[in-house]
Amino acid sequence: MTRFYLFLCFCTIIIVFYLNKVFIHDRVHYGRTVLWNTYGGGEIRTIYQDPDIYLRQNVRTHVGDISFLELREEVRHIKNCCQSAMLNFQLYKKYGYILTIPTYPFVTTKSKYDMNCSWEFTDWLAQQEKRTNRRPRAYFPDGYQRDFLTNKYSGVSYKYSDDREKLNVTYKSWENIADIVTWHSRDVLRLVDDMSGISMHYAMKNYYLADKRGLVLASDHPIVEIQAIQNGASRILSIGQVARETNDISSMSLTDFAKNHQRYTQSFDFVATFGTIETVGLGRYGDVLDAFGDLQMMAMLGCALKKGGLFFLGIPIGRDAIIFNQNRIYGHARLPMLIAGFEWIATFSEDSEKSTEITGPEIDRLHKFDNLKRTLVLRKL
Ligand SMILES: *[C@@H]1O[C@H](CO)[C@@H](O)[C@H](O)[C@H]1NC(C)=O
Ligand SMILES: *[C@@H]1O[C@H](CO)[C@@H](O)[C@H](O)[C@H]1NC(C)=O
């Protein structure tokens, strides 16, 4: 009988010890907070962030809900059962990025490699030799699907258009820029019948562009160019369009820009683009198919930006996806790669002149392929 009590006693001690350990572990664990200073619309905010939040947090991707742990690719240390399955889920390491801060809802990453601007432009120019006059493709080329779909983290749906001609059309808006800059900011957006672009105007208004020189990656109509001028920018170079010259805006083709890239290295105070980055590399405008076209274009634009300069980036945000050959949607997987090398300082929507935040639940509630059009303000590190 005493033996039984001794055994019971022993068990109790073990259980108490174990519980205590978990408790203390938890306390140490969650009690530790660090300070991140973030800059949002003119004031420095300090947020207390639990450095281990990723341990508990799930984010939604095309392959289902995954934990931050998986994004950090540390799962294999825990479940070492499934080496081969894990290889399918590599993300940042596979594409040459390192996860630096487990920020939520989008982790912060940086590139493993030092930026070599001259390589980016030389490589891009070499790729252009593959350019043909063929109709844009309606499906991914064989063998490239995995990279286009960010190693399967992106969903895919199909919507086709052949927009090659749009590059050659000279929209009246380009000829009437001098008139359009006098319009009200909302009327300017009537040119494209899509109010979401007003977020770019709000972003530029909050970060004074007075007397600054800017680079714009063009879309069909010169909306972003006009918004920049309206917000005080002194001179704009617009790339991706037929060469032309007005008082404040000059434009040139991407090829000429790439060929003369040395002239433009770190020479602009700001860069802006709305609704274009997400189409690069999908072939819709007759561009060369490239799974990483958007990342490379981002790098090229970044090379022309001064250190500390601002990058106004208008993109659709949601669950990672490609709507081939229309555009990408940036989510938990690809957005951190797109903005690696920049500090994300503010976000603007069409609903408010003040900066807003994108919350995790807001993103994860969206249906597949639904998205929020936002203008992010990034600072080049
Ligand atoms: C950058 O790339 C070019 C080739 O485009 C190469 O010649 C040069 O050595 C590279 N520079 C560095 C620092 O790696
Ligand atoms: C656009 O213009 C360029 C040069 O003017 C020409 O080579 C090209 O074929 C044109 N593209 C289309 C789709 O018309």
Automatic annotation (TrEMBL):
Organism per entry: Caenorhabditis brenneri
Name of the protein in question: Uncharacterized protein
Residue spans crossing the bilayer: 5-24
Key words, A-Z: Membrane, Transmembrane, Transmembrane helix
Keyword Transmembrane helix attributed: yes
InterPro entries, per database record: DUF268_CAE_spp
Keyword presence, Transmembrane: yes
